[in-house]
């Protein structure tokens, strides 16, 4: 199974994880998590696993925080997350994360926007409100309309704060459009010629948007692999820690980490 700009790594991991009581049965796996993880690999993986085993994987979104915390409580069998657990939050303390892929973050604009490239400083300055007009980036004389995810715990938002600002508490004062998830962010920019925002490449490639080069580097497989494209993060499957895992969860994760998966 291949994914553009996503590095699927076969890992040999031994783990002791569990899923507490859930509404699923032995022939069903309940999964919830961030939409980017769902689009990056879970949709195709779930179909392939059902075809191989007859076990259906029911997918729902809700974001990385939902995926992590509902896996911990046992409301779902497996969560999906595009960020690591946050230290100091008891709701996530017993989460066990299994990295299964790498995903690039990309800066996106409307497909007809003439700007093709941006550097890290310019990206910071846009989010901080220091660059406010597209003409400062070689574009038209028009205001920049920044789209951001609500809150600071989203996978994209947390990774952006870590890699671009080195500050998990960073606010984005220039935000004009604050949306609940990556889907509305991408759809908004798809319709707004003056819009800009950051999302996962696996999600962005399904939209009619332009992905900007960052520091003159495109988010290609090779550039992510060699580290020259700097915005990337791992994607995780999440289960509950420190208890015996159900066999169906173990089997699914083993499949996800295999070459076949």
Strand content: 25-35%
Report the average pLDDT across residues.
87
Outline the biggest β-sheet: 11 strands, mixed
Distance between the termini: 7 Å
Tally of helical segments: 8
Q: Radius of gyration in whole Å, from Cα?
A: 19 Å
The level 1 CATH classification of the largest domain is Alpha Beta
Which structural class do you get from the secondary structure elements?
Answer: alpha/beta
Given the C-alpha coordinates, what overall shape results? Answer: elongated
Roughly what percent helix?
Answer: 25-40%
CATH architecture assignment of the largest domain: 3-Layer(aba) Sandwich
Fold-level CATH name of the largest domain: D-Maltodextrin-Binding Protein, domain 2
CATH homologous superfamily designation of the largest domain? Periplasmic binding protein-like II
Pfam families: PBP_like_2
Protein name: Phosphate ABC transporter, periplasmic phosphate-binding protein PstS (TC 3.A.1.7.1)
Domain PBP: 38-260
InterPro entries: PBP_domain, Phosphate_ABC_transporter
Polypeptide structure, described:
This protein is α/β, with parallel strands linked by helices and 261 residues long. The protein has two domains: 7-102 and 234-257, D-Maltodextrin-Binding Protein, domain 2 (3-Layer(aba) Sandwich); 104-232, D-Maltodextrin-Binding Protein, domain 2 (3-Layer(aba) Sandwich). The protein is built from eight helices and 13 strands. α4 links the parallel β8 (145-149) and β9. Mean pLDDT is 87; it is low at 1-22.
